[in-house]
Amino acid sequence: MLKVYASISLGLVLGQITSHAQGYAPAAAPARPVPAAAGMSAPVGGMFESNTFLEMASRAFDPSSDSMDFENGSFAWKGRTFNLTSQRAFRARFERFLLASPTEEEESYALLMNDVLQRLSVASDRSDDAIIETWEMLFRAARFDPDGGNSTIVANQVFNAWRIRKEMRGTALTQRELADMRRHQQTVVANRALILEKIKEQKERETVSKTSGKGGNGKKADSGALATEGAFRALELAETEAKLIAMEGQAALTGIQAKLQMQSQIVAFLVQRRYQHALLLSGFYQLLFKGSQQQLEVGKGELKSFFPNTDMVFTVDMMAFVANEAITDVNKGVDAVNTAYAEDRAIIALERLQETFFLGEYMPELNAIPVEQRRMLLDLYRDMMEAVELAEAKDYNGVAQYAERIALIAKDFPEMRVLSSVETAKSMSDMAVFAASQYRNLGDIDKARAELQQAIDIWPSNPSIREFQQETTKLATAGSQGVQIFDDLYKRGDHRGIYDRRMDLGFALAEDTERQPLLMEVIEQVSTIDLLVAQSAEALKQGDPYVAWELLAEAAKFDPDDAPMNRARAELAPRVADFVVYLDRAQRQAAEAQHAGSLAGFLAAQDIYPASRMCREGIERQSSALMAHLSTQAEAVEE
Amino acid sequence: MPPLKPAKSRRPASIWSAVSLIVSLFAVALTSGCGDNFSDLEVLPTESYMKKPSDFLGNTYTIRAQIDSQVKWEKGVGRILAVSPESGGARLPVFVPDAVGGNLHIGQRYEMRARIEAGGLIYVESLRKY
How far is A630 from chain B (nearest CA, A)? Predict the structure, then answer.
């Protein structure tokens, strides 16, 4: 038995230490039967926290908005899906933003970018000089840190397109020269073929005359020379043709390459949420390429994931529209954050700020959020993240502390809901510990172990668990001395002393068939005394001292030497002195078989408290005894 | 010597007067309750009796009381009554043997002649309404 208890205590202590060290508790408790005898029980089926507290904590403390899905790494915005980084990376960038203060440099950069975008609009001056001047402004923009060098990329793309266009002009000139040459060579080849045909006809005529007796050797040599030159000219023509075709292909390829590079970069800017640069490059693209070249031919895969539910044809204009829409949304988001904050809705402000921040992380418009507001939201954000981690670690006291702290910052935080859930979880764990204690005291070790495991699962740092373990250890130590202590106390009739040590003795005598019934009897007896004393106190409170006295007198039957009971009787006696005098007299005479005197005493006591049960029973008892005595006497006289 | 005649004639008158005297005395005795003489007895000191009944063993007292309740009855033996003494104080248990009691009702008032028997028993020897 002692070994079993020791194994419970040691095993669970180790289990708990391990859980704490790893920052989590075992995921699932072993299957256990429903406790019945113990009276109290933890929630059946276990895992209370997984269904209630953690969900609640996740809802209450997660500052992320519904549009941010860190598990899938996506951020949904108006049917478009951005690739969201991990929560840790996002948290780092977000905290950096909340810690940062707007600078003059950022303001200058914002003005410059707006100026460049204004110049690229259709309504502005679109002369070559104006365009070049706008292009040069990109290099000024690139010098600002917030730009991240993206303006240089735009400038390079534009320059590359210009260079390709210039190269194409040179290629066109060469193509024209080759076409002229091809026409000349075609003429030459055609002439040579005509001459060769004529020679062939003449040769045939000479062959006919030769058969009639005439010669013709000189013409034969001319015919061979012409055939060789014709083949040579045809070869030259073929070469020229090949050069021309190759040049046309190269020119087409170069033009497409420039277009595709710019299209790719526009898509890249959009996906990276660099909306201003996407607009810049779109503006230059529309200047450089004619209207028929606006359809996007690259980045379709990226765009498909960006626009998951559409079959539309993607164009550069469409990219510009999306970029403008995002910029508008960022502005609206910033306004929403400031408004919510001004109205003491810090939780809403934080949620909206996260969305707005992710959407417009590189937008200067975010600087419209004041520095003090950022700091406060940073505190709130960090507290909520910390609370989430505490909730996951099931540190309910920590969660409650953070909930109270957050409620001071954020008026719209559901503090009561959190605290209520915390209390519920703690109660469940306490109930499981209590049930474990009950089972341990009844000697049902398996159930005690299962209940304790349940308590640890729900609340690993529950102080009651440590108390339970200490108590169990103490019981194990006291077990060996229990028999001697019980014997001594029982011999002295100190039932109260036995009752006070019932836990220790119960454990020590669990398997002692001789003493265990005696222990149970004493415990039951003293429990009854305690119950009667408590009832007596209650009756006294209700102004009924005679009922109180009778309850104490009833208790005295179990153990007249019980100290708490006698103390209560001594305190009450002066208030019921007359009644007690008659009652005592009646009982004393009853003990001496003075039935008539006893009967007189009971009747007198009943006159004082007519509802007395003791008097009623005493009268009945003594009158019966007296009558029996008289009857015996009468029979003796008759005989 | 012959018996005296006159003496014979005087005897009936004296006899009759003596008889009438005895009869009248008997009648007076009957009407005044000479056989159950309650008035000569002391009234039971209930307070002292309650404290220590054994001090009164063997004594005879008169008790004027009202029947409060019948505590016990046994045929052929008698009944134990709880009575409230006229002098006040607590109720007393009295035993009325079957031979003494007639129809006794709660609320009736009786003057009782009682003897204190063993165990402090108040044994009613006779009683009458008053």
Answer: 7
Record: contact A627-B77, CB cut-off 8 A: yes
CB contacts, 8 Å: B93 with chain A = 596, 599-600, 603, 623, 626
Residues of chain A with pLDDT under 70: 1-54, 56-75, 77-86, 122-123, 172, 212-227, 250-255, 290-313, 476-480
- Cα atoms found within 13 Å of the Cα of residue A222, Cβ hemisphere only: 13
pLDDT tens by residue, B50-70: 888 888 999 999 999 999 999
Dihedral sign of CA atoms A135, A141, A147, A149 in order: positive
Chain B closest-CA separation from residue A566 CA (Å): 26
Alpha carbons within 13 angstroms on the beta-carbon side of residue A315 total 14
- Name B8's Cβ contacts closer than 8 Å, sequence gap at least 6: none
The Cα A419–Cα A431 span in angstroms is: 18
* H or E element at residue A399: helix A396-409
| pLDDT band at residue B6 using 50, 70 and 90 as cut-offs | very low
**The pLDDT value given to residue A40:** 39
A603 touches B at CB < 8 Å: yes
Tokens of A352: 């909206």
Q: Count of CB contacts below 8 A, A vs B? A: 73
Cβ pair A596, B121 in contact under 8 A = yes
A632 CB near a chain B CB, below 8 Å?
no
Residue A127 phi, psi dihedral angles, 5° rounding: -70, 165
- Cβ-in-10-Å burial (0-12, 13-18, 19+) of A76 comes to middle
Q: Across chain B, which distance is largest between two alpha carbons, in Å? A: 80
- Report pLDDT for A248: 72
Tell me if B90 and A600 make a contact (CB, 8 A cut-off).
yes
Distance from CA of A639 to the nearest CA of B (A): 14
Q: Is B48 on the interface with A (CB under 8 A)?
A: no
- A390-422: b (≥16 Cβ within 10 Å) or e: bbbbbbbebbbebbebbbebbeebbbeebbebb
**Looking at beta carbons, which residues of chain B come within 8 Å of A585?**
50-51
Q: How far apart are CA A150 and CA A637, in angstroms?
A: 135
Asked if B72's CB is within 8 angstroms of A631's CB, the reply is no
* pLDDT given for residue A637 in this prediction: 77
Are B53 and A600 an interchain contact pair (Cβ–Cβ within 8 Å)?
Answer: yes
Cα nearest neighbour of A581 on chain B: B51
Exposed/middle/buried for A356, CB within 10 Å: 0-12, 13-18, 19+? buried
